Amino acid sequence: MTELRIFRDDKPAAPERVLTEGNAIADVLGKEGILFERWKADVDLAAGDDQAKVLSAYAKQIDKLKRANGYVTADVVRMVPDAPNRADMRKKFLNEHQHSEDEVRFFVEGTGSFYLHLGKRVYQVICERDDLLSVPDGTRHWFDMGPQPRFTAIRLFTNPEGWVANFTGETIAERFPTFGE
Ligand SMILES: [Fe+2]
Fold first, then answer.
1. pTM here?
2. Any idea what DSSP says for residue 6?
3. Which residue stretches of 58-153 are H helix?
4. 126 C-alpha to center of ligand 1: Å?
5. Spatial CA neighbour of 130 closest among 28, 56, 39, 54
6. How much distance in Å is there from the Cα of 41 to the middle of ligand 1?
7. Domains of the chain by start residue, with CATH
């Protein structure tokens, strides 16, 4: 289930607020300038479907999103629980970082957890199938796919070259609950 947990950034032990209803999550995030929408991921993917298959299965939605929000390109990240590179992939974005490009993810399968550090709060957004989340450029955040990741997310870009992680050097992520364990 999609879930938003709001923490004080100095109190990682327990969230101040937990929301599980899509519209309420969209409202709260929208007030912080974060785009969150529930879309319809209406194609069941097969285990062996590669990037081209996923992109063509969701061509209609991708096209709509590109037109609505000005994204230029799309690609696919697909993780399975026994992927040999899963530990390295998980570690990659597990520390607080920023990008000079929006981080846009449309989850069409599985689940993963974003943590957005906004002012004195951390917004943990546990995304699942149907969720579209856009983390604006310059937003401090991290992402945990868990030790046995399972998700397929379509990534949308206005400028893929800008999507490089600039780590803040903060260790805040280590103090917050991890995902999926
Ligand atoms: Fe990121």
1. 0.96
2. E
3. 59-69, 86-92
4. 14
5. 39
6. 22
7. 3-175 (2.60.120.10)
Q: What is the pLDDT of residues 15-33, one digit of tens each?
A: 999 999 999 999 999 999 9
CA of 20 to the centre of ligand 1 (A): 23
Cα gap 174→4, rounded to integer Å: 19
The CA 93 to ligand 1 mean position distance, Å, reads 6
Please state, rounded to an integer, the average pLDDT across all residues of the chain.
Answer: 96
Largest pairwise CA distance in the chain? 44
Q: How far is the CA of 6 from the centre of ligand 1 (A)?
A: 19
pLDDT digits 0-9 by tens, 67-99: 998 999 999 999 999 999 999 999 999 999 999
Q: How far is the CA of 72 from the centre of ligand 1 (A)?
A: 18
